[in-house]
Amino acid sequence: MSNLLDLLVAGLATGAIYAIVAVGFTLLWQTSQTINFAQGEFVMLPAFLMLAAMQAGAPFWLAILIGILLSMLLLGLGFKMLLVDPMLRHGVLPLAIATMALAIGLKEAVKQFYSAEASPFPSIVPTGDVEIFGRVVALQSLGVLALAILAVIGLTALLNRTSVGHQMQATAQNPTVARIIGVPVERMILLTFLINAFLVALASLLITPIYLAKFSSGEVLGQAAFIAAIVGGFNQVRGAIAGGLLIGVVDNLAAAYVSTQYRAAVPLILLIVIILFRPQGILGRPEERTV
Amino acid sequence: MTGAAKYWRIGFGVVAIAALIIVPMNFNRYGLFILSQWAVMTIAAMGLNLTLGYAGQVSLAQGAFVGIGAYTAAIMTTQGMPLVAALGVAVMLCFAIGWILGYPALRVQHHYLAFVTLAFSTLAFLVFRNEDWLTKGIYGISNIPRPVIFGFATNRPLPFYYVCLGSLGIVSVMVWWLIRSPWGRAFVALRENPIRALSLGIDTRRYTLMAFAIGSALGGVTGTLYAPLTQYIDPVPFNLSLSLDLLMMVIVGGAGFFLGPFLGAMIAVLLPEWLRFTEGYYLMLYAVAVILLLIYSPSGILGIADRYLTERRTKAASALRAVAKARLEAAP
Lengths: 291, 332
Description:
The complex is a heterodimer of chains A (291) and B (332).
Chain A: H1 2-32, H2 39-55, H3 60-88, H4 92-113, E1 129-132, E2 135-138, H5 139-161, H6 163-173, H7 175-180, H8 185-211, H9 218-232, H10 237-257, H11 265-277
Antiparallel strand pairs in A: 1-2
Chain B: H1 3-22, H2 29-54, H3 62-78, H4 83-107, H5 110-130, H6 132-135, E1 148-149, E2 152-153, H7 157-180, H8 182-192, H9 194-199, H10 204-230, H11 240-253, H12 260-274, H13 282-296, H14 300-330
Antiparallel strand pairs in B: 1-2
């Protein structure tokens, strides 16, 4: 029982990070039909930007700031202008393939220009343990969880409570009508790309201290985010959040109770079952098919 | 097609085949290995092209079928059974699994289908890695023998290259026949408009499953050739990135074009080799090249050629029309 609590906290902490990445993923899908196969690499890159800034002599807080700004510039604005915009009108598949190529390019660039080895990364949450209700819990898990929850609350508030958020939702649901009623659709799409870039930078900041900074670390993360997005519901932000938390917990429990060899299989089987029996995801709404 | 264009095409085909047979004769071991790899991967890409390019079903599992074929061949031939028997078993096994994998495609489309097949791909990799009793896990299976065909041993690189090339030739002829048959037409109908295809009386259910099964079986063929080509297999080459690579080959070459997989595989297998002089940068350059190509022509390399030919044909047709019109007006 006590062990279960530890697993739950650790699972929720990684799950919250998956949720952040998955939310960005679904935002891009909703506003611009972009399936970003490089999303995992998008999480991997900002950590290296921050490490590079620190090597250039910047203090940690400044490095974080530089990392987030650079990632919004490169992975938000640059990604949209250079890759998505020219390809969007050609349909979903060529763009998806192009993001696969981008994933290879990003991995190789980091390997070539930074290092092929795993690098340690400072934690923004103090390490150590705290005692809650007589249980020892890693402070890092709690800190990650708290920051991730804050990010999710902030995003939900932005989407549901502000005018800009409503305009973004309108853009996602029906761009044509949104344009007619005066929503600056183009600007809203750009905004979702910037938000995605911010979210992946945040996820990078939270997860890299746990798993180290490595050029190939995006593969696992990207896949976890895809699964989270689909399990929760591809077209709903709250679906992606639920999916992320669920996958994080399931993954941790599977490692403890199924087998370490097949832990990766459990979320995948969950994914297949969900797609076959409830393709719109746990919280999603069905997408109508057009003739 | 005009008669001259047809002869040009046949002439080009004969020259290409002759070059593939004659030129590699004085290649070194490594050159032959790369060329054999091209021939072998082209077969898997052709299978995926049937599933994706003709029938329009996205699959991210082709690498897993190559793995299933490779492990079938490795396990059976190291037990002393002939490669042909392994080929039969691998094709049947991949056909059956591909058929089952097609069932999700009856319910979901596009990105959902991509993720189901992606999950299958990763699950297959986990089985290759973890079922030690069958696949020897991460240690892999070594000393995979190369086949003896009609009394000729194919241990040396050049004869085995001819085995790969010959297999590619046989598969090409079969696929060429298939896409021209009513089945191939039905696949295209499935891609272009599934609901209309259904209303025309095409059993879309059966053809969807068939598209998956045949495409997967060709992945199995690649596997049975890949195992004796490398003579050692472990799980690593059959992870998700092989499936992604194969998908990229099909799209870059030109999905839905018969020659697409040949070109796509050539770029995926040979371009990194040609860029090797750039050392660590070659995969990066490869990625950039793929992105630029897709921005310029989302329908791949053959898409560019197709666009050019269509333009020329329209111009020629409108020129003919203008002449005809002038003649009609001149006539009293």
